[in-house]
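Record now logged underneath.
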Amino acid sequence: MKEKLKIDIVSDVVCPWCTIGYKRLEKAISELGIENQIDIEWQPFELNPNMPAEGQNVIEHITEKYGATLEQQKASQQHMKAAGDELGFKFDYFDDMRMVNTFDAHILLEYAKDFNKQTELKMQLTKAFFSDRKDVSKKEILKEALLEVGLNAEDALAKLDNEEARLDIRNKQNYWKSLGVNSVPTIVFNRKSAVTGAQPVDTFKQVLSELIAAE
């Protein structure tokens, strides 16, 4: 049996373009009919590692971080909503939406990997944040997501206080940064080549076809 194509997706739970990028990649894989030839692993990246526990209003945050005007932000949100609609994902932006800390979410995604539930949990957390107006830094929301995908919530949440588990995420974040990953999504193929950003479905199909043929 030939080896699967390994795809590492460096991303954050609260990154809209990461969701759009993954959904397009998923569509490309599905259209090529190569689901059983792909092995996806999610890698941690925090857009806002210093985000305090109370979070920050999204509009305020984007203004501060990127200098974007309200008009630019509203246009960008509409653009993302349209892209999401095309892929069957709902972006529900609202005035009181808050950007939150995602470190704990990354610890749980690492935990989910051992049970082959990483992608499921990632999508559940992303949906909670973007579609269901939920704060994915809160333990009760994280617990809901874990239960939703059939994981042992008590076992998983215990990892949040585990120093080794926390250090593991820090090390992984630093590893990808040391390779020059400073924007997400960054999608890495067999740890040899990468594309950044939410590429169109056809671009992903071309890249995947070439890589599978080369295998």
Summary: The beta strands are 5-11, 38-44, 56-57, 98-99, 186-189, 193-196. The chain is about 55% helix and 10% strand. The first strand starts at residue 5 and ends at 11. The mean pLDDT is 96.
